[in-house]
Design brief:
The chain is 52% helix and 11% strand. By secondary structure, the chain is α/β, with parallel strands linked by helices. The protein has three domains: 122 residues, no CATH class; 253 residues, NagB/RpiA/CoA transferase-like (Rossmann fold), CATH 3.40.50.10420; 68 residues, no CATH class. Strand 5 and strand 6 form a beta hairpin. It comes from Benzoatithermus flavus. InterPro entries: 4Fe4S_Fe-S-bd, 4Fe4S_Fe_S_CS, FTHF_cligase-like_sf, Helical_ferredxn, LUD_dom, LutB/LldF, LutB_C, NagB/RpiA_transferase-like.
């Protein structure tokens, strides 16, 4: 998926005018948001568990080199192979070489944001290998020719009727009306692809250093068929998916499903350790793990280090008022919502993604619900400061910030100017509202701006005997 986050404002505007999308996004509030709250309330130690999850990730990042070495040693001891990729291009080539070595013509894939990040599907297709997405949401998007709009529910922007129309066009036959019939139709088609695949490609929710294991989490069982039926299994994961022990992985799993979908545990949680051994009835004959850096080690030594705690639950976007209004496609790349507003500028460059950190009201709900307590508003603020430093912000906004900074450093002048402005705006208002205001057309074009009422806070504070 080509990164085009610079067009965020245009795509967000179109999303606001899309009634089908708005209906689909409203379902997140009544579904996952409410579900997370109920799941957290049912677990008395939920807040303590969040602290523990944060500490596990921080410890792992502090000792990442040691745990990466241990993971590779244990994967090798179990009969697998670890491959290291510095960037997306290296990762793509590694996967292609492994597929060719296995004689693959068709590969099945379970949902993997890393494969989206590196643009794996079009690369394999360009080299004569057919990738088949097996996650229902990803399969829908693959035949629709669309990118994911959410990291947990990739097709969350589509309604059941839209999927029914898509299946009728793509599969032929009569139009299915119920969700159960649509799922059955997808299952029938995908079963044939599972059996025909030469290679299975999955992501990983966690990599366990002490055992060399890979943990995958799904609600459909597609990852199990993808990794268990083909002769070769390839795991693509980024470095920060590592955890020290199996106990650490299951601690984070207790947070993951509750934060993502409101479940206590996902329907399928699978631990895979190496290829099949003598006596095993199923499993791959060859097991490969492609570990991707792609800018992560740079983040380790920067102000963005805390972003590497992310366990990809999607809670930040489920609770973000901007995401819930604009949808995932507005962000223009793989990672939407608050986590994408921090991660995308690092991965594609702030020059291409500078609008994303501005796509936030800084209400703080993302940090409030993050299961590993990532300070997302603070990290977005870092990128805002960086874009200002590099003069990426439009001149009007840049000069406005400079003017505000000048006044804010001079409290007496600040109070004088704001007092005059408040009185002037109150006089210009009609019925307590401003229908049009210079330099604020982006707001007043679609809604009225409430006018200041009465005296400023500081003047009222002084009148009531306030002091510093």
């Amino acid at each position: 998926m080509e990164a085009t986050p610079l067009a965020f404002a245009d795509r967000a505007s179109a999303a606001l005018d899309d009634p089908v999308l708005q209906t689909a996004l409203a379902g997140i509030r009544t579904g996952w948001v409410a579900g997370r709250q109920r799941a957290a309330e049912r677990l008395p130690e939920f807040e303590a568990l969040r602290d523990l999850g944060r500490d596990i990730k921080d410890h792992t990042l502090a000792c990442l080199d040691l745990y990466l070495e241990a993971f590779e040693a244990n994967v090798t001891a179990c009969g697998g192979t670890v491959h290291w990729a510095r960037d997306a291009a290296e990762a793509r080539v590694l996967v292609l070489e492994l597929c060719r070595a296995a004689g693959a013509r068709t590969v099945t894939k379970s949902k993997s944001m890393i494969s989206e990040e590196i643009g794996l599907n079009p690369f394999l297709e360009a080299h004569g290998i057919v990738p088949v997405e097996t996650d229902l949401g990803e399969y829908i998007l693959q035949i629709a020719g669309q990118p994911p709009s959410h990291i947990v529910g990739p097709a969350i922007h589509m309604t059941k009727d839209a999927v029914a129309d898509l299946f009728a066009r793509h599969h032929g036959g009569e139009r299915r009306e119920t969700a159960a019939d649509l799922v059955a139709e997808a299952r029938r088609i995908l079963r044939e692809r599972y059996l025909a695949a030469d290679v299975g490609i999955t992501g990983a929710n966690f990599l366990v250093a002490e055992t060399g294991s890979v943990v995958t989490v799904t609600n459909e069982g597609n990852a199990e068929l993808t990794q268990g039926l083909p002769r070769t299994h390839i795991v693509i994961a980024s470095l920060e998916k590592l955890v020290p022990t199996m106990a650490d992985a299951f601690t984070l799993l207790r947070l993951l499903a509750r934060s993502a979908t409101g479940q206590e545990f996902s329907a399928y949680t699978t631990v895979l350790t190496g290829p099949k051994r003598p006596g095993d009835r199923d499993g791959p004959e060859a097991f490969h793990v492609v570990l991707l850096d792609n800018g992560r080690t740079q983040m380790l030594g920067s102000e963005l280090r805390a972003m590497l705690r992310c366990i990809r639950c999607g809670a930040c976007m489920n609770h973000c008022p901007v995401y819930l209004a604009a949808g995932g496609h507005a962000y223009g790349w793989v990672y939407p919502g608050p986590m994408g507003s921090v991660l995308t500028p690092q991965l594609v460059g702030i020059e291409r993604a500078w609008p994303l950190p501005n796509a936030s009201t800084f209400c703080g709900r993302c940090e409030e619900v993050c299961p590993v307590r990532i300070p997302l508003p603070g990290l977005m603020r870092f990128w805002r400061e960086e874009q200002f430093r590099r003069r990426l912000v439009p001149p009007t906004a840049r000069h406005g910030l400079k003017l505000w900074g000048f006044l804010a450093r001079r409290p007496v002048l600040y109070r004088l100017v704001t007092g005059i402005a408040a009185r002037l705006l109150a006089k210009l208002a009609r019925g307590g509202r401003l229908a049009k205001l210079p330099l604020a057309e982006g707001w007043t074009a679609t809604r009225d701006l409430p006018a200041p009422q009465g005296r400023t806070f500081m003047s009222q504070w002084r009148a009531r005997g306030g002091h510093r």
